[in-house]
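Example record used in the benchmark description.
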Amino acid sequence: MLRVERLEKILEIVDEKGVVTVDELMDRLGASRSTIRRDLEQMDMGGKLKKTHGGAVRMDKPIVAELPLAVRQQMQTGEKARIGKYAADMVQNGDTIAICAGTTTFHMAAGLADKKDVTVLTNDIAIAAQIAALEGCRLIVVGGMLKDDSMTLVGMFAESMLKELHVDTVFMSSDAVDPAVGFLDYNTDEILIKRTMLENSSRRVMLCDHRKFQNKAFMRICDLTDVDEIICGSELGEDMIGIVNEAGMEIHIV
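Model output (C-alpha cells):
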C-alpha cells in the first residue's frame, strides 16, 4: 500500500470509529508499529486527528493539514477527478477562464483537452504545465512570488496583474466549507489571490470534495452567497446538500 493510500485509510477508519488503537491499524493496514506511529504523529501535527497513548481519536472538525503537495494531489482522487471533469465540461469553446490553485482544480485541467480557443489564467504551476500541453488552450500564468511548498504564485505582483484582467468564469477550491461562515482557507498567502479572482469574474464556481465540509480553516475567502455554483462529490451527506440548497446556491452532485 502506498503511503498516501495508508494516510487516507487511517483517516477513514478514525472518522468511522471515533477511537482506534495502533494495534488495530497495524492489523487492518498490514503496516509496522513504527510506521503507524509516524503516520499518526504527522496527522496529529496537521490537525487531522488527535494522537493518544496507543492510538488516536477523531477530531469533530479536523483542521486542514498542510500535507506535501504530492500527497494532497493523491487524496480523494476518485471524487476529485469526477468533480474536475464536470467542471471542465462547463467550459465552452472560446471561453476565458481562471483556474485557482488547488488539488481539486488540478484534476480539472486534463478535461480541457478537447476544448478550442480557450484562454486559461492560473497561478498554479502544476496546472499551468498541464494546460501548456493542450493545443486548444491559450495559457496566461500569473506572475508573482513562488511558494515552493505548493508551487503557486502569490504576492502583490500577482494581485496587481489579476486586477487588470477579467474572465468569464473562475473555478476555485477551498480548504474548508462552513455553511454558517463561508468558504475558508488555511493558506493566508493565497486568500487575496482568490478574492481578487472572484471579484474579476462574471461566473464563480467552487469545486469541493466532501471532506472540505468536515474541515475547518481560520480565514474566510468569501460567503457562500458570493459563489454562483458549487460542484461536490456524491459522498456529501444529504443534510449538507440541503443546507447548501437553502443558501440559494446551485449545487451539482457528481
